[in-house]
Automatic annotation (TrEMBL):
It is a multi-pass membrane protein. Keywords: Cell membrane, Membrane, Transmembrane, Transmembrane helix. It comes from the Bacteria. This is TVP38/TMEM64 family membrane protein.
Length: 218
């Protein structure tokens, strides 16, 4: 069963290496998809379409965790940077009106330490991705600061989602090779559980941030 994914094993315990011919076929099938996927992801970020998680899982499914995660990090950073530049330019007023009162809630953090604050917002998605993409533009944050904090901050969640996508692909592939119909129990693997655990930990970061912030203020 040929799958359009790069010949790259999931970083999962017990992942099975593919045969040489299958590896070559998968690698060849995946190459034409990479530029198109990159374009779609960048467009989704620029247009603020809430599909980042699904697309990142798809990247892991198609290309494997390392390549899929890397493509996603680059695409998300590029798309975010384009939106940031647009917010600093002719679309600034329009985007600020669309963001509403969210922007002012971020003002103090960006004025104190723009890089660290943006890094925290990327690591712990407290506010919508769209808001975090454009808000720094209204507080004189430099483009290089924005790019660096975004690139570093989105890595953990991105690779966790890509890992999950890769593991889902492996489950489906094993079912296809064995010829049995998929069931929910097929997805109850140790690797998928670990990927979901990683995402759960990331999901708790906003709560941890709020608790720490309230204690400091108290």
């Amino acid at each position: 069963m040929l799958r359009p994914r790069a010949a790259e094993p999931c970083f999962a315990v017990g992942a099975r290496p593919s045969s040489g011919g299958a590896e070559h076929s998968c690698r060849c099938l995946s190459r034409p998809l990479r530029p198109g996927f990159l374009f779609v992801y960048v467009a989704a970020v620029v247009l603020s379409i809430p599909a980042a998680s699904v697309l990142t899982i798809a990247a892991g499914f198609l290309f494997g965790p390392f390549l899929g995660g890397t493509i996603t990090v680059l695409a998300a950073t590029l798309g975010s940077s384009l939106l940031f530049v647009a917010a600093r330019g002719v679309l600034g007023d329009l985007l600020r009106r669309r963001a509403g009162r969210f922007v002012e809630r971020l003002a103090e953090g960006f004025r104190r330490n723009a890089f660290l604050y943006l890094l925290v917002l990327r690591l712990a998605p407290i506010f919508p991705f769209f808001i975090v993409n454009i808000a720094p533009a209204f507080f004189d944050v430099k483009l290089r600061t924005f790019v660096a904090a975004t690139l570093l901050g989105i890595v953990p969640a991105t690779f966790a989602y890509a890992w999950l996508g890769c593991e889902l692909d492996d489950v489906i592939a094993r079912a296809g090779e064995s010829g049995h119909a998929l069931s929910l129990s097929d997805f109850a693997t140790k690797e998928i559980s670990l990927a979901l655990l990683a995402l759960a930990v990331i999901a708790t970061l906003p709560l941890a941030y709020r608790v720490i912030k309230s204690r400091r203020q108290g």
